[in-house]
Amino acid sequence: MTTLALGATLLGGPASADVHCSVPLADWQPREALQRKLEAEGWTVTAIRADDGCYKVRATNARGERLEGKFDPARLEPVRRKTQEDDED
Q1: What is the mean pLDDT of each run of 10 residues along the chain (89 residues)?
Q2: What DSSP character marks residue 17?
Q3: With b meaning 16 or more CB within 10 Å and e meaning fewer, what string describes 19-47?
Q4: Which residues, listed in sequence order, are joined to residue 57 by a DSSP beta bridge?
Q5: 51 forms bridges with which residues in the sheet?
Q6: Is there a contact between 64 and 53 (Cβ–Cβ < 8 Å)?
Q7: Residue 41's closest CA among 11, 3, 72?
């Protein structure tokens, strides 16, 4: 699986489909904070939802590639992401 590196915050990390976050709900940052962060890095966010205790994001980049990622809801750091290319492999 190819990992996506967009901006300094999207480097490395697990690429497992079975990623779960275990952050108490009281510690979650708002979805809007994650959206602002990703848009500043060039993402066009189309959806953010809770999934397995993480934020799951669907977006596109400047080249029009579809992006999908899971983010820690407290730190807003990626725990898993993939691109449209990954689906075609």
Answers
A1: 33 52 96 98 97 96 94 95 60
A2: S
A3: bebeeeeeebbebeebbebbeeeebebee
A4: 48, 69
A5: 54
A6: no
A7: 11
